[in-house]
Every structure is written in C-alpha cells, then in structure tokens.
C-alpha cells in the first residue's frame, strides 16, 4: 500500500478559484488599460474573499492554485498565478517568478500572457529590458487579435521602441494601424489615443471629425484622457 499523502482542495476553495479566474479573464478580455485592471482585479479579489475570512486564507488559496497549475498546466490558471505572484496575494510579491509564469503561458500560445510578457520586457520587470523581445511578444499577442496586445504594440511603434530595435524612428502609421484594431474591439485607451493622433496628425492626416469621434467613444467608457482631449477640442 502506498504511503503517499495526497493534498485535496476543498470544494469551497475550488469554487472561489474558479470564480476569481473567470473575473480576471473577463477583465483581461475586455482589453482594459494595463495598470487599471490590475488594481481593479486585486481589489475585486480581496473584496470577494472578505466574506470568507475565518474560513480560508490567502495563502491556502494561492497554494491550491499552484497545485492546479502543476496538474493541468493551462494558460488561464498560469496567468492567474502569475498575477497573484506579482502582486503578492497569498504569497510574497515576486516579479521574477511572475515573469517566468507569464513566459511559460506565452510559450503555450496565450495572447494575454504574450502581451504581459512584452510589457515586462519593455519595462524591465523581472528581466533586463529588451525591446526586440517586447516587440516579438506584443506582435504575437496582437496577431491573435488580443486588443491590449494590439494597443501595446501600437504604443511600442509610437514611442520609438523600434528605434532601439531596428534603427528607425517612431512609426506613427503602424501605431495608428494597431490602435485602430484595438479600438475596433472597444478598447477605450486605444480610442483615446486615436483621438489624439487624429487631432495632431500623427501617423495619419489631421482629421477633427475622427478625433472627436474617437474621443467621444472613449469618453462613453469613462476614459479620463479622452475627456480632457474632447474638452480641449470643444474649446478651441
């Protein structure tokens, strides 16, 4: 008879993790801004678990998720563990481990992880800055139709990431191309950025009508940058 001790996850823990995972994936799929979703997700996670205090703690949740990741190796669960690892929910914050987890998920072909990985490379989070690698992972995410990946790739072109990687200046036309893709999917930050690009004539001809249209679309989604841009245009 085997003496192996098995660790079982209680049903309440399973239900909580599944609920959290669905919430996180929903937020990611909406293509929210990179920073804002993290705060919202973390707040939602903590608020969700507030009613479970005394029944289950953060560490047991994280450990249960780690066990699930080890067993099924699916990108959705890996991404959630990476997120919790980065922000220290149930564990010590560990940006390098978060990078490794996102890298694993990105290699499996997950567009959310690919976008995150590009961001980590571009901003030197848990890894030495490498703009070529940032472009690689942003591109893979964008080509799979993930709005945040498309927006990140657009920003990479707009701010001259390719100047470092390929000896070129910023590429406004490519930035507009990818922002349009992200905006078509309803990403508010991309709509706001397009408003600015059409307003200034960056990567495209100046077009007041289009600038106002995209600003208004983003304002409906309560994007603050779009509100400021729209108010400025209405006053001038």
Automatic annotation (TrEMBL):
This is 10732_t:CDS:1. Belongs to the sel-1 family. Gene3D superfamilies: Tetratricopeptide repeat domain. Pfam families: Sel1. InterPro entries: Sel1-like, Sel1_AlgK, TPR-like_helical_dom_sf. PANTHER family: ERAD-ASSOCIATED E3 UBIQUITIN-PROTEIN LIGASE COMPONENT HRD3, SEL-1-LIKE PROTEIN. SMART domains: SEL1. It comes from the Eukaryota.
